């Protein structure tokens, strides 16, 4: 699936980019353009879905939609607007649907599911865990929050996610999760329990291979994780989208916050 997002408001565009990626939960290619002119200039990109802001300087979303229809018959066109008046008239403008800003994951998923159903399209879920590191650490699957029986299991996963696939020993995890160094063996037992809690949660989702355990060390399989932190490091998202908070509920995150020198 290839998705084009066109919006002259940078923060709005990047936010929608993350929302759509989470809603689709697959390996879709998403490109963001600040104007209709730049979107049309990228002749090598042939989108399946175009999400267009309506009010833009120069070529507005209505004009852009007409141009895109000529080039890509069958293109799914969705208007994304902050103005409810446009939304009310969207169906009369010959598009597949509309979203009001700011669109939520559920908004995007519901609209796309309806459009895909009408067109008889079958979009396969790639089975990747969705992880948010910027702001508070949260874990999702199919847009739903993943709950763990033990709160420290979630914190342990957060640290492993931040390690980006590197092996982390149980001793290091003990140092992260507890301030004092006493009763190390007992704490290592807790680490094994937290790992089991993660396995149980992932097993229910059918993604058991996310957590990797090798002797006395743990890691995550990054191929099975869709993470905003990883996309940022790969240059796929912009730092300006965030307010500088990183895994903010855990004190140890201050030591690895990419926004802190």
Largest sheet: 5 strands, parallel
Q: What is the 3D shape?
A: elongated
Q: What does the radius of gyration come to? A: 21 Å
Number of helices: 9
What is the string of SSEs from the N terminus onward? Answer: EHEHEHEHEHEEEHEHHEEEH
Measured distance between first and last alpha carbons: 38 Å
Supply the helix-strand structural class.
alpha/beta
Regions with pLDDT < 50 over 5+ consecutive residues? none
Bin the strand percentage.
15-25%
| Name of the level-1 CATH class of the largest domain | Mainly Alpha
Question: Your description of this structure?
Answer:
The chain has 261 residues and is an alpha/beta fold. The chain folds into 2 domains: 2-119, Rossmann fold (3-Layer(aba) Sandwich), CATH 3.40.50.2300; 129-255, Orthogonal Bundle (Arc Repressor Mutant, subunit A). Helix content is 39%, strand content 18%. It is built from 9 helices and 12 strands. It has helices at 10-24, 36-41, 61-71, 84-89, 105-119, 151-162, 170-177, 184-205, 228-233, and strands at residues 2-6, 29-33, 49-53, 76-81, 97-100, 129-132, 138-141, 144-145, 168-169, 211-214, 217-220, 225-227. The strands form 3 sheets. Strands 2-1-3-4-5 form a 5-stranded parallel β-sheet, with helices on both faces. Strands 8-7-6-12 form a 4-stranded mixed β-sheet. Strand 6 (129-132) and strand 7 form a beta hairpin. The protein is elongated. It starts with a strand and ends in a 28-residue tail after the last helix.
